[in-house]
Amino acid sequence: MFFAEVGAGPRTYEASPSEHRKWVEVFKACDEDKKGYLSREDFKVAVVMLFGYKPYKIEVDSVMSSINENTSGILLEEFLSVVRTKKEAQLCWSEIRHIFTAFDMRYRGFLTLEDFKKAFRQVAPKLPERIILEVFREVDQDSDGHVSFKDFEYAMNYGQKEA
Known about the structure:
Layout: H1 2-5, H2 17-30, E1 37-38, H3 40-51, H4 57-65, E2 74-75, H5 76-103, E3 110-111, H6 113-123, H7 129-139, E4 147-148, H8 149-162
Antiparallel strand pairs: 1-2, 3-4
């Protein structure tokens, strides 16, 4: 996919020492009984504290199913790994939103073929127009002549999976 070729590859998030300390403090605060792990409910509270939203049941189920069967909950190292992964996803989403906004020069919330052409003229002036048209058609999933952020995000993430 084209977007993988232009540098939309996966990122590895490295927490600063202070951010890492915060994650550990949140883990300890949510482990009220000092059992050394977070239960389902403890984990939900930790997500609220760090990310500001209550996780969906499916998200909690996914995390809890991935932990070591010999423990009753998520250990600190597993928790830190989950938080790092969530931060990577946030970073990726923010970068994609930033690129989309740069393409959406008229702030309409969607991109047209003309928006694509203007953007590509600036970043890749020698790219043949037929390639730009192919990329636009691939990203415009419902062929309505508009690329929504959802279409754009899907294309960017699809490109990462192929890279």
